[in-house]
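Sequence and fold:
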Amino acid sequence: MKVLCERERLREGLTVATSVIPLKSTRPAVENVCLVATDHALELVGTDLDVAVRYRIDDVKVEEPGTVLVPARVAADFVRDLTGDTVQLRTKGETFLVESGSDRCELTTVDPDEYPVVARFSEDGSVPVLGSTFTRLVSRTSFAAAREQGRYAMHGILTQVEGDTLKMVATDGRRLAVATSAFEADATGAAPKASRAIVPSKGMQLFCRVIDDPLEQVRIHFGENQFGLKTSKAEVFARLIDGEFPRYTAVIPASTENLVEVETELLIRKLRLVANVTSADTRAVRLSLDKGKMTIFGRSAAMGEATTELDVEFEGKAGDIAFNPDYVIDGLKNCELERVRLEYNEKTSPGKFTLGENYIYIVMPITIDT
């Protein structure tokens, strides 16, 4: 292999590829980045066996095509710290040289045959989505996905194609985020095929990372065992989570008796204020609602108690409902409305927050001592 390319483009590609490459693996070959030089492009491939990326750099000068496997972190760090504008990559026997001006690094190589096969994106059956639409749906939901062990199916984002809409859903069992957006029209005019998959949160973050142009129409593909996304620069794949996603529709209130509307930023500040006195063991605040007023109260034996009031628009029966303030704030930080809407029935029933158009967030209440 012998390739000449721009340092900045190579740095970007190595940064993306190494973001999924593990420091240690039961298969040592995947600790490396795979560089594939064809006639007019350089492709960088990285994987941890669950998530994989192919990053393409065009406009390179390829004097000798070839494939090489080199230590990922060392290559990325060396290229990052180079000062020259161009970089020459070439094999030299059993080693690989990275050169720019007077700077030079000679890396050991691994047999490319030891590297796992990374799929290529299939256009057949793929669906077009505006880049900004995809990243917005991920940001609206990913924060609600489970992180603790033992909730495997909840570690991902349920991604569904339903008619002319794309829906994403995430939950950890205590809160639930649901966001939907209409598809942009495909050039063929064909209706998208109904599809459903649980995509790992890590994969979703990588998908968003390679979408650097929000106006680009990317393509997504639901495979039998993996979900793929393709941009003009990259192809990314994530192994699907095999499990039963919770029946989330059962916890979304069909109708509600109480409705609160309040300024979003003000509610965030007031919740943070009162949450300061709560502890990890008593992470709860009580919202007391009456006509035109909300009182927020928090208490812990170790630190004391705090109370604050704010003006709201309230329709319903005066009463209380308590939540984990962190969960509520997580949702409010993603709210796209100046005034958020909270609906609920009883103090023991879920709270439904409307955070934007086609965007709802459900938080389960907490029972606290009065």
Summary: The chain has a mean pLDDT of 94.
